[in-house]
Design a protein that fits this description.
Elements (H helix, E strand, L loop, with lengths): L7 E7 L2 E6 L3 E5 L14 E7 L2 E7 H4 L9 E7 L2 E7 L1 E7 L5 E3 L2 H6 L4 E7 L2 E6 L7 H4 L5 H4 L1
Parallel strand pairs: 2-11, 5-7
Antiparallel strand pairs: 1-2, 1-8, 3-6, 4-5, 6-7, 9-10, 10-11
């Protein structure tokens, strides 16, 4: 299904921005869990946390857009290509319905300057909403997390 054909979106705040991911990709939302930092990873990958007994990479969504100061109040776990990733976000706004007509693909000028994670830009209550591509939030190598200690035994 093309990204903009999704009807329901989870909208959240990351730093000063509103963002949305397809609700169909969302597994669960939760309070933040301890995150074990990893050295040498992509700058927006905060590290790993244990969710339901498995190591899951955590992406600080605000850091994707250069806001390193934002502190996450919630985690949003997504299923991306059969793997799990957690998004560290500031606040959950809620589930909203957007039609394809409500979000436009990035114009060419912005497409080249923006992060690959942004698929489109929409509007909600007078604010921009960045429609994120879940599959582009974490590089493929970061999704290949080490096995949980229990599984390694």
């Amino acid at each position: 299904m093309p990204l903009l054909m999704a009807e329901n979106w989870l909208v959240f705040r990351a730093g000063a921005r509103l963002c949305a991911v397809p609700l169909a990709s969302v597994v669960e939302t939760m309070r933040p869990l301890p995150v074990e930092p990893l050295t040498g990873g992509p700058h927006a990958v905060a590290g790993l946390c244990m969710i339901r007994g498995a190591p899951v990479p955590v992406v600080n969504v605000a850091a994707l857009f250069g806001d390193e100061r934002a502190t996450a109040a919630r985690l949003v776990t997504l299923s991306v290509a059969g793997r799990r990733v957690a998004l560290a976000v500031d606040d959950l706004v809620g589930v909203r319905s957007f039609a394809a007509a409500d979000a436009a693909p990035l114009p060419p000028l912005l497409r080249d300057a923006s992060t690959e994670a942004i698929a489109a830009i929409g509007a909600l209550d007078g604010e921009f909403v960045l429609v994120l591509q879940a599959a582009r939030l974490v590089p493929e190598a970061a999704l290949d997390t080490p096995a949980a200690p229990e599984a390694a035994r």
